[in-house]
Write a structure and sequence with these properties.
Layout: H1 19-28, H2 33-38, H3 41-90, H4 94-107, H5 112-124, H6 130-139, H7 145-157, H8 161-174, H9 179-191, H10 195-208, H11 213-226, H12 229-243, H13 248-259, H14 265-277, H15 283-296, H16 301-311, H17 317-329, H18 333-339, H19 342-345, H20 349-361, H21 365-373, H22 381-394, H23 399-416, H24 420-431, H25 435-448, H26 453-465, H27 469-482, H28 487-500, H29 504-517, H30 522-534, H31 538-544, H32 555-567, H33 571-578, H34 589-599
Helix pairs in contact: 3-4, 4-5, 5-6, 5-7, 7-8, 7-9, 8-9, 9-10, 10-11, 11-12, 11-13, 12-13, 13-14, 14-15, 15-16, 15-17, 17-20, 18-20, 21-22, 22-23, 23-24, 24-25, 24-26, 25-26, 26-27, 27-28, 28-29, 28-30, 29-30, 30-31, 30-32, 32-33, 32-34, 33-34
């Protein structure tokens, strides 16, 4: 009776398609006591068992997928954070962007988007860690052409130029190069002294994309800088073609053509006209046109300069800087001082620098001192210290006083990070006999700009003059590492290593290979002979010295030659040659030892 009667005959029955679902729900969860009474014990057990099994299955499913869901959530969070980092970078808030990117990386270290942005950030910062992120992208098979371009840029920024070159060559073999890849090739291949390869890459790109004015401009410049005579002519034609453009590229072409010294009178006149008519020219370009006009009409120089000065009378100080530079270059220092005055330049460094140079060149030391010592003069500590040292020198202050002031100037330059001034101070100190300070300035200059050869050349020169063998060896080793393609640097390093007794076996092997490529080279013969003497092989050393040309050696190297000859048993010849070298000749201590050994009286 209970299993068949309707508990509520007045209730409306549900929609027919929902009835099975409602019946199943009521089976699992009876809504009333009547529903429960109508169920058999077996049905209740079955329903409970199914509910229990479903609950257990749901828990197992949750446990098995929890990690996946957690990772998906972390990935979602990291994507949100990396989006914020990209937006912050676009707003030039790099520090905040950097922090957001690291937070995203902490959330999901395997997120390809995060790895890509981190690699790009490290590339912008010129950090070697960028390579690790690119390797991660490569392991995941997620490297794109854009990623490869960034990787090349990262390698170039940390001076891994050989690897960067290999990457560039790989890109050029496998895909059509982009403008960015070509621009990176320009940077990398020039550093690697691969100018012919660079010109070929630029030529191919210009043929493929003749409307790309930026690369066409770059191609023209490189043809002039690295090409043969025919290629230089081609590059100049290309630049003159671009110079007619009224945009930025045309102005850049004009600026480069203005630096070319070997242009004809007709081309100078054309350059003047283009500089005067270009819509984007600034005051520096107008002065460049006037400078070229003086070259064309040297007889009108004073007239052209006077008109230029009159036309700019009353101009803003900012617009007078190119004129001041031009007057200084032309040696018109008196005109510069009459045109400007101390009150006008005292608090404006760009003009002040030219004004101080004019006072220095004209020897107006009292006016120079008054301006330097005036607290109202806007000079940095470094520039003020340098000029004080110069004033001390020209007023014939004691050597020790000048030396102390130069030390203070060097410390101030280093503290302010004014790296270009290091070479200026080094050259100044070297010419005036303050060699220790010059050596230190050259050392700092070479460290601050490792691609600048001038710093290294100065450092090598000064360490040698100062008899600093260890410093000379270190500088020579650095140059051969920076410019391995230059054999003259390798010769100098091997000489410094052999004379110091450092890395003997490897140095001897490298010296022998160098000599085999140029068997008549006197310097290389001396290297091999020096190596043999260091290895106690006097006969082999004597053989290596055959037909050596003394004119190819420096006095210090000649002293080493004399010492080797003496050690090989040629005492008289060694003593005769050594007698031609004065004892006070400037050389390294080790070279001096060889000379003294050769000059020693014969053993009785």
């Amino acid at each position: 009776m209970l299993t068949s009667q309707n508990p509520d005959p007045t209730a409306s029955r549900p929609f027919v398609l929902l009835r099975p679902l409602i019946a199943a729900w009521h089976w699992f969860f009876p809504p009333t006591q009547a529903h429960m009474d109508r169920q058999s014990r077996t049905a209740r057990i079955a329903a409970g068992s199914l509910i229990l099994l479903f609950s257990i299955g749901l828990m197992v499913f949750t446990v098995m997928n929890a990690r996946k869901w957690h990772d998906a959530f972390q990935t979602w969070q990291s994507n949100r954070l990396i989006d914020e980092a990209i937006k912050l970078k676009e707003q030039d808030k790099f520090v905040d962007a950097w922090l957001k990117a690291h937070e995203a990386y902490a959330k999901d270290a395997d997120n390809v988007r995060v790895l890509r942005v981190m690699a790009q950030f490290y590339t912008y910062m010129q950090k070697k860690e960028a390579g690790w992120f690119f390797d991660r992208l490569r392991q995941k098979g997620a490297m794109t052409d854009e990623d490869t371009t960034f990787e090349i840029e990262a390698l170039a920024s940390i001076a891994e130029n050989k690897q960067a070159q290999d990457q560039i060559e790989q890109v050029l073999r496998t895909s059509k190069p982009t403008q960015k890849v070509v621009e990176l090739a320009d940077v990398v291949l020039r550093k690697n002294q691969r100018s012919r390869q660079l010109l070929q890459i630029l030529d191919n790109f210009v043929v493929q994309e003749p409307d790309n004015m930026e690369i066409k401009l770059l191609y023209g410049r490189r043809l002039v800088e690295y090409g043969t005579s025919d290629e230089i002519e081609k590059g100049l034609r290309l630049l003159w073609e671009l110079a007619s453009d009224k945009g930025t590229n045309g102005l850049a072409a004009l600026e480069f053509l203005d630096r070319v010294k070997t242009i004809s009178s007709e081309e100078k006149q054309r350059l003047i006209e283009l500089l005067d008519s270009h819509p984007q020219v600034k005051e520096e370009h107008r002065i460049a046109a006037l400078r070229r006009q003086v070259e064309l009409e040297p007889g009108r120089k004073q007239e052209i300069i006077a008109k230029a000065m009159e036309d700019r009378r009353g101009a803003k100080r900012e617009d007078l800087v190119p004129l001041a530079r031009w007057l200084t270059t032309e040696g018109e220092n008196e005109k510069l001082l009459s045109y400007l005055d101390a009150d006008m330049v005292r608090d404006y460094p760009p003009l002040l620098e030219n004004y101080l140079n004019a006072l220095t060149l004209l020897g107006k030391n009292e006016e120079l001192a008054a301006l330097i010592n005036d607290p109202r003069t806007r000079l940095t500590t470094a520039i003020r210290a340098f000029h004080k040292a110069h004033l001390a020198y020209v007023t014939k202050a004691p050597w020790e006083k000048v030396n102390e002031l130069l030390k203070e100037a060097l410390a101030a330059i280093q503290s302010e990070g004014r790296q270009p001034m290091l070479l200026t101070l080094a050259d100044y100190a070297e010419k005036r006999g303050h060699l220790k300070i010059a050596e230190e300035a050259y050392k700092l200059a070479s460290r601050s700009n490792r691609a600048d050869l001038a710093g290294y050349e100065g450092l090598l020169r000064l360490t040698y003059r100062n008899g600093n063998t260890a410093g000379f060896l270190a500088a020579a080793q650095e140059t051969v590492q920076r410019w391995p393609e230059k054999e003259v640097f390798e010769e100098r390093y091997l000489y410094s290593a052999l004379i110091s007794g450092v890395d003997m076996e490897q140095a001897i092997g490298r010296a022998t290979r160098l000599l085999s490529s140029r068997p008549a080279d006197s310097m290389r013969k001396l290297l091999v002979a020096l190596g043999e003497i260091r290895m106690a092989n006097p006969k082999s050393a004597a053989t290596a010295l055959q037909r050596i040309d003394l004119g190819d050696l420096t006095p210090g190297q000649g002293a080493v030659l004399c010492g080797i000859m003496q050690a090989a048993g040629y005492d008289d010849q060694a003593r005769s040659l050594a007698g031609r070298i004065p004892d006070d000749t400037q050389m390294l201590p080790e070279e001096k030892q060889f000379l003294m050994m050769a000059k020693a009286p014969p053993r009785g």
